[in-house]
Amino acid sequence: MTKQTRVRIFSVLVLLAALAGILAAPATQNAYAAPCCSSCESRENACINGTIYPECGGDPECCFNKVLSCWRWCSFSC
Description:
Elements: H1 3-24, H2 37-48, H3 60-66, H4 68-73
Helix pairs in contact: 2-3
């Protein structure tokens, strides 16, 4: 094996290692801010008091179901 062949093989290996490093880097993800769970509680209380979701008529179960999507995604670390 000539010196020129070894240099070419080494260059290809360096290029492949750099490409593997770039492809192995984690993909960036968009961060979505979750609402604070305290806001979910406020919405549920407002429903029970009749301020929002008048169709529930203050029924706690109905109000909980109306705010359920908020409870599923809220963050307690606010």
